[in-house]
Structure formats: structure tokens, C-alpha cells
Amino acid sequence: MTGNCLALLLGSVGVAGVVAYSVERRTPELALRLALGSTPRQAMRNAARGALISSFAGLALGLIAAWGLSQSLSALLYDVPPHDPTTFIAVGAVLLAVAVVACWLPARRATRIDPAAALKQE
Predict the structure, then answer these.
(1) What is residue 20's predicted lDDT score, i.e. its pLDDT?
(2) How many domains does the chain have?
(3) Does 3 have pLDDT greater than 80?
(4) Range of the domain at 70
(5) SS3 of 80, please?
(6) Predicted local confidence at residue 1, as pLDDT
(7) What is the pTM of this model?
(8) Helical segments of the chain, H only
């Protein structure tokens, strides 16, 4: 059980890092949108949309691949049946929640900066 939780934690940290980085990279774009009259809500939604779509697609493909490979990897699974729906749902929900928070925090931070200061950094 500890190994499963550790694997989920490691996956969550990886997802959070990649998603937050992809949103953070768009800070100059968000600053430009804000400077041109976009509301912070519109800019935040725009920044989070791309990362969330990628997260949904990656999660769906990952769960499909895990479902397909779980039978061949059943010897490595301890105390978990190969096609346990509770595990798949729980892991998917945790990773999706991590992706949503990882999108929301950098996007919110980017909409609170001064557009002129963000554009000067580039």
C-alpha cells in the first residue's frame, strides 16, 4: 500500500510540475491580453484551458494504457486486483484534481501581475 501511495504522490508531483510550468510559460501572453483589455477571468480561463485539455487527454490515454497493461503487470501489483475500478477512479480523480489546482494557481498569479512589468521582462 505504501508503494502505491508513493507512486501516486510521485505522479501527482510530476503532473503538477508540468502543468504549472506550461501555464507559467504563458505569463507574457496573459500580460498582453490583460493590457489589451481582457478581464482577469477571461485571461485565467484562457491560460488554464490548454493545460486542462492536455491533462484530460493525458489522463484518459494513461488510464486506457494502464487498463490494457494491468493484466500483464499483475505480478507486480500487491493487494490490488489488475482491473480494480476503485483504484482507477481514485487515481484518476486525484491526478485530475492536482492538474486543476496546478492550472489555477499559476493562472491566478499571472492575472494579478502588472501587465507592463510582465511585458518588460520579455
Answers:
(1) 84
(2) 1
(3) no
(4) 2-121
(5) coil
(6) 61
(7) 0.77
(8) 2-24, 27-35, 40-69, 85-111, 115-121
